[in-house]
Automatic annotation (TrEMBL):
Keywords: Carbohydrate metabolism, Cobalt, Isomerase, Manganese, Metal-binding, Zinc. GO terms for molecular function: D-ribulose-phosphate 3-epimerase activity; metal ion binding. Its EC number is 5.1.3.1. PROSITE patterns: RIBUL_P_3_EPIMER_1, RIBUL_P_3_EPIMER_2. This is Ribulose-phosphate 3-epimerase. It comes from Sulfobacillus acidophilus (strain ATCC 700253 / DSM 10332 / NAL). A divalent metal cation binds at H38, D40, H71, D181. Its cofactor is Zn(2+); Co(2+); Fe(2+); a divalent metal cation. Gene3D superfamilies: Aldolase class I.
Amino acid sequence: MSHTPLPVLIAPSILSADFGHLADDVRDVVNRGADWIHVDVMDGRFVPNITMGPVVVEGIRPVTDRPLDVHLMIVEPERYLEDFARAGAERISVHAEATPHLHRALEMIHGLGKLAGVALNPSTPVSAIYHVAENLDLVLLMTVNPGFGGQSFIRPMLTKIRETRDWLDRQGLTHVPIEVDGGINPETAKWAIESGATVMVAGSAIFRAPDRTLMIQQIRQAASHPSVPISR
Ligand SMILES: O=C(CO)[C@@H](O)[C@H](O)COP(=O)(O)O
Ligand SMILES: [Fe+2]
């Protein structure tokens, strides 16, 4: 199966930014090459952590013209879609596990004029999105268990990335990117890109890098370097 021609995009997760200087950190990663800004919304119910809501999206919206990529890790996401759309999200991803009405949630996002993504936990099979093929602008595959930054990439997710890419391509959805989220660094990005993902979310790797420009470049170009065996 040939690799998708979609460009590799870098989406720094502001979960690892300095919240006391959030605008400065957003500006900084944009100036250093970020394509999207990834916003992790957690409610303390879907995941065991509480982070930020629409006011933060609204606060960073004027800071950059880069797309704000909102990842909702909240139960009943339908209740808040309008708030995030109004706050300035460009894309909104909801977890398949967080709503019994996934199709409706995606239609709501489109009705608000936004791009719709579905996020899947590591344990959720790709078949969870079969019924919403026509409603997808993005598939977000968690490569850690959601809830926290700084965790290690779960390697068996590489098979799931490949399975998802093959399924999307078979549906004629070659334009729909796969975003990977969790434990992304230049090494894991290489594996993920070679498996068919093109949007790299990275929080700790970018915000804690001594040289953020270099880190963004290394993640973007990860797959251009010679293969090394995946160590076990
Ligand atoms: O959605 C999540 C975590 O649930 C992510 O977006 C993390 O924020 C990624 O952080 P790193 O693993 O890159 O540090
Ligand atoms: Fe995320």
